[in-house]
Every structure is written in C-alpha cells, then in structure tokens.
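Async update (no meeting this week)

Hi team, since we skipped the sync, here's where things stand on the single-chain job. The sequence we agreed to prioritize is pasted below, unchanged from the tracker. I ran it this morning and attached the output directly underneath so nobody has to dig for it. Comments welcome in thread, and please keep replies under the output.
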Amino acid sequence: MPADYAKKNIYQRVVAVNNHKSLFLNLEYNWYSGPSELQLIHEATETAINDAAANAAAVEVARYAVDGTQLAAPQKGVNIVRMSDGTARKVVVK
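Output:
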C-alpha cells in the first residue's frame, strides 16, 4: 500500500446487484440494493518508514541560479535550493 494511503482511513460502501428474468415474458431486469453503511476497511497507521521520513532533516539536493542553470556552489544573488523532502527554497547569498 502506498505510504500516503497508509496514513488515512479507507472506507467502502457495498451495493448488491441481482439479475432477474421473467418466466412468462421475455424480460430481464436488475435489482439494486441501496448502498450499505460506510465500513472501515483500513485503519490509518504510522509505520517506522513514515516516522523516519517525517523526522528526517531535509538536506540540499541541488542548487540552481534564477535562470535555471545548476550551480556547483552557492553563487552571489538569489539561489534556488532543491531539498531532499521535495521542497524548493529561495536563498539570497550576499
């Protein structure tokens, strides 16, 4: 199960379908029950992987100039820093 879904409760509703055929007429129809009450099928849990990912400090993965070129080191002006947690930050280097 994907990690994002492991953190959420998952519910389902059930609808029963029954197919009927008429004995005397050439008719066929379906009977549908109303939807059932919501039933919990997965209760949210925190796993060690989720906890470790949430508690890990984000580190710099890449650094870019404003024009999009990748930088090897901080450069004077505005730098865009891509972090390991998927976020990006604008950093001003003097």
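Quick observations from my side:
The beta strands are 10-12, 17-21, 28-32, 39-42, 60-65, 70-71, 77-83, 88-93.
The mean pLDDT is 81.
Reply here if anything looks off.
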